[in-house]
Recover the amino acids of this structure.
């Protein structure tokens, strides 16, 4: 469960889905404008109220009947960490594609990976 945001708090919004289809994914800062029991509302200062977006407090998902246009992060570093994690996972996937050690990773390093990958 994500922590409950506070009015005036700055968060970071990444355009995703159709909002990122024909443009670069950009991280923009938004401000929490309202906080209720179930939802909170974010928008940019100076923008009209109809441009504000509503999110669930429980997991910070956008409240929409369709696909989400944005994803929130508490800080820009949280976004960079998630992006780096995805890149590392993709490299690992490509290294062991089709169930083989395609990149010829040494056995000692494979053992280290296996130890780290075991569930706790």
């Amino acid at each position: 469960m994500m922590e409950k945001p506070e009015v005036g708090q700055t968060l970071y919004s990444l355009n995703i889905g159709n909002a990122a289809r024909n443009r670069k994914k950009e991280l923009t800062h938004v401000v929490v404008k309202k906080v209720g029991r179930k939802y909170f509302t974010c928008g940019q200062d100076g923008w009209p109220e109809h441009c504000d977006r509503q999110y669930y407090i429980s997991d910070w998902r956008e409240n929409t009947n369709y696909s989400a246009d944005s994803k929130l992060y508490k800080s820009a570093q949280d976004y960079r960490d998630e992006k780096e994690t995805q890149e590392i996972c993709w490299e690992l996937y490509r290294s062991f594609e089709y169930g083989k050690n395609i990149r010829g990773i040494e056995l000692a390093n494979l053992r280290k990976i296996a130890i780290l990958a075991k569930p706790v």
Q: What stands out?
A: The mean pLDDT is 92. The longest strand covers residues 27-35. The chain has two helices and five strands. The longest helix spans residues 76-95.
